[in-house]
Specification:
With 396 residues, the chain is an alpha+beta fold. 36% of the residues lie in helices and 26% in strands.
Length: 396
C-alpha cells in the first residue's frame, strides 16, 4: 500500500491499492508519486482504488447539489466515488482502472474542498471570544433591552386609541350574544391584550423585528476571530495555539487587568431604517490600546498557522458587541416575504431610545476558543480552550 502525501489543510490521506498488493512508499512530490503508482499499476494491470479521509462536514461539497459534482467527476474521469456509510466514518473511496484518473479525481476533490472552505458555503464552527455574559448585571440589561423592544415598540406604534385618547390596552370589550328563541343575552368580557396581540405581532413583523434576531444575553461576547475547524485535529491545533501564545498576550496587556466600556448603538451594515447588524461600540477603559494589541497577537498567530480563511486574514480587527443580527432570523413566514440577502429591520425607534445608552464598564477576565451551536451549563458557548487574564494588579 502506497501513502500519498496530501495537503494538511483538509487532513485527509490517500492510499492506492492495486490487486490487494503493496506498493513502495512514495515521495512527497506529486509528480514522482504519480509515476511510481502508474509503474506499479502497469505491473499488476488490475483495478485500483484510492482512499481519501474526508471529514464529515466536507463530504456534501464532494457530492454537490443533487450529486452534480460527484457525477461530473465520475463521468469525466471514468471513476466511481464511494462515500462513507455513516457520519462516524470518513473514508471516501475512489475506484477506477487507471491510476492516472484516480490521481486526477483526488486532485479535483482537493480543489472542490479548497474552494468550499474559502467560501460561505462552509460555515464557521468556532471563534475566539471575550466573554461578557459572565457579568450578571450586563445580562439583565440585555434582557430588559429585548423585552422593552419586543413590548413597548409595538404598543407605542399601535396608534389604537378610544375617544378619550387612552390606549385600548387599558380597556375591555363587551360582547352581547343574543339567543334566538329565549332572547337571553350573554355578556362576555374579553381583555384587549388578547385581541391586540395579533396587531402587535404585525407591527413588529412590519419593522422586521422578532425575538430570533436578538443575541441571547447568556452568550454576549466580543469576537476576535472566526474560525472553520471541521475536525478534532484542527480544534486541537487551535487550542494549542491559544495556549502557546498566552505569554505574548499577557505581555501585550502588560500583565495588568483590562476593562472595556460599552456605549450607544451603531449599525455595522445598512442604516437605522434598514439595519442588518446592530451593536454596541467598544471602548477600552484608559484608552492605552492594550486590548487591541493583545487581540492582534491572537489574530497574527492564527493567520500564520493557516487556520484562518483568506478573506478573514485580510480584514482589520474591529471589536464590537453585537446586539441584533438578521443572520440569526428563524421565522419562516418572514422568508416568504423577503429574500435573505435583502433582509433588514427598522431600528429607528431603537436608536431613539438606546442610541446613547451607557451599558457600563466591565473587566475582560478570559479569552476563549468557543464552539458555535454548543453551550456549557452557564448558557455560554462551549469552551474548547481558554486563557485567564490578570484580575488584579501585579505586586511589586
Amino acid at each position: 500500500m502506497c501513502q500519498i502525501n496530501s495537503s494538511p489543510e483538509f487532513n485527509y490521506t490517500e492510499k492506492l491499492e492495486v490487486d490487494d498488493s503493496v506498493c513502495l512508499q512514495s515521495s512527497s512530490s506529486t509528480e514522482s508519486t504519480k509515476e511510481e503508482l502508474v509503474t506499479e499499476a502497469n505491473v499488476k494491470d488490475g483495478k485500483c482504488s484510492i482512499t481519501m479521509e474526508v471529514d464529515t462536514p466536507l463530504v456534501r461539497f464532494v457530492k454537490g447539489k443533487g450529486g452534480s459534482v460527484q457525477k461530473q467527476i465520475e463521468e469525466e474521469l471514468q471513476v466511481k466515488l464511494i462515500f462513507p456509510s455513516s457520519k462516524e466514518e470518513t473514508s471516501l473511496v475512489i475506484e477506477g482502472n487507471k491510476v492516472e484518473n484516480l490521481t486526477k479525481a483526488s486532485e479535483r476533490i482537493k480543489q472542490v474542498l479548497e474552494e468550499a472552505v474559502q467560501s460561505r458555503m462552509l460555515d464557521y464552527s468556532h471563534f475566539i471570544s471575550l466573554p461578557l455574559a459572565v457579568h450578571s448585571d450586563l445580562v439583565q440589561k440585555l434582557v430588559k433591552f429585548q423585552s422593552t423592544i419586543l413590548g413597548e415598540i409595538a404598543e407605542g406604534d399601535s396608534g389604537e386609541t378610544d375617544d378619550s385618547g387612552d390606549e385600548l390596552e387599558s380597556q375591555s370589550i363587551s360582547v352581547q350574544l343574543e339567543v334566538e328563541e329565549k332572547k337571553d343575552q350573554v355578556r362576555v368580557e374579553i381583555a384587549e391584550r388578547v385581541v391586540g396581540s395579533g396587531s402587535k405581532s404585525r407591527i413588529l413583523s412590519d419593522l422586521g423585528i422578532d425575538k430570533s434576531i436578538f443575541i441571547k444575553p447568556k452568550t454576549f461576547h466580543l469576537t476576535v476571530l472566526m474560525l472553520k475547524l471541521w475536525n478534532k485535529d484542527r480544534v486541537a491545533t487551535a487550542s494549542d495555539i491559544l495556549q502557546r501564545i498566552s505569554s505574548k498576550v499577557m505581555d501585550a496587556l502588560e500583565n495588568r487587568p483590562i476593562s472595556i466600556k460599552l456605549k450607544g448603538l451603531t449599525c455595522m451594515k445598512g442604516s437605522p431604517a434598514k439595519a442588518r447588524v446592530l451593536y454596541a461600540p467598544v471602548f477600552e477603559v484608559g484608552e492605552e490600546g492594550r486590548l487591541v494589541r493583545a487581540c492582534q497577537v491572537i489574530r497574527d498567530a492564527f493567520v500564520e498557522s493557516g487556520l484562518v480563511v483568506d478573506k478573514d486574514a485580510q480584514q482589520t480587527l474591529k471589536l464590537h458587541a453585537t446586539l441584533m443580527n438578521v443572520r440569526h432570523r428563524k421565522s419562516d413566514e418572514f422568508w416568504s416575504e423577503r429574500k435573505r440577502w435583502n433582509d433588514s429591520f427598522d431600528a429607528r425607534r431603537i436608536f431613539d431610545e438606546y442610541g446613547s445608552e451607557e451599558w457600563g464598564e466591565y473587566p475582560i477576565s478570559e479569552i476563549h476558543l468557543s464552539q458555535r451551536f454548543k453551550f456549557d451549563e452557564s448558557g455560554y458557548y462551549h469552551c474548547c480552550s481558554s486563557i485567564t487574564l490578570p484580575a488584579t494588579m501585579p505586586t511589586i
